[in-house]
Amino acid sequence: MGGAGNRLVRKGSRAHIRDPKAKVFNKVLHCNNSVRGVRSIRCMGLLLWLFMSVAGAAETPRVVATIHPLALLVGDVAGESVSLTTLLPPGTEPHHAMLGIRQRQVLAEADLVFWVGPDLEAFLAKTLALRKDEGVLRASAIVGETKARVQGETDAHLWLNPENGRRLYDALADWFSQRYPAMAATIRDRQREFHRRFEETLGDLRDQFPVTGKGYIADHDAYRHFSDYFDIPFVGALTDSAGLSLGARTHGELRRAQNAACVVVEASGPSPGARNIARHLGIDTVVVDPMAVEVESGATGGGYLALLRRVAQGFRQCLDG
Ligand SMILES: [Zn+2]
Asked: From CA 164, how far away is CA 312, in angstroms rounded?
């Protein structure tokens, strides 16, 4: 995170100035008083530094996205004009994450916090309830009650439905354009380009599915926003969408499944149960990362669409194989 320091921090009704830059500011004042007329190079440097950091803090919105897919969307919308931090490092399981001291600080300094909602990041619910609404975007609220569900059940991995991804993109574009008018023209240009590429990408992906009449078993029930959208049959899962194990009865049923082409597993690899079922049914395990951590946020604005292509590629591998 760049530009830490001289930022107004609102605590209750009082405004405090954080320490480091306030100290420098005092030094600059001291420069003016003590070296009348002739300012030393050091003093000029201090003035310049103070000016640049204050200007930088005012212009560059600090954004925290909780997980990588949301960070990809922010990067696509706003590119380099925001300072973006992903709260949970790649590979962190959001269902059971905890909030550390450093993360609290990053959240306190953010102009915008973009999260999925309490169904995914339960560890943030209390902290974000204390924040002012204008500095928070909750994805599950943006896509709405019905779109956050799959066949009547809440599934927090909602970014895997492309329509949800597009809604989230548009909500972010509105948010930045309204609060930072200087960014609006660029944001709207990027948005038009995103919509064009979105249609193109979806056209490609629709042509790819369904591949066969067979479906997939999921190690973790995280993919149904995607598989439902593209009519890929879902056979069953070993842990539910909240990350809880579904128990022996479900395992027993899955061991008798007739129509599974593979067991889809997360980037961390198959659980012992997934490996066991794949061996029993004589099918492969295939890694499909719902977070798409390998996809980098790019200046070209194609991060989210690359995520969709990556997930599609995984499902093709499952169903083709
Ligand atoms: Zn999950």
From this structure: 16
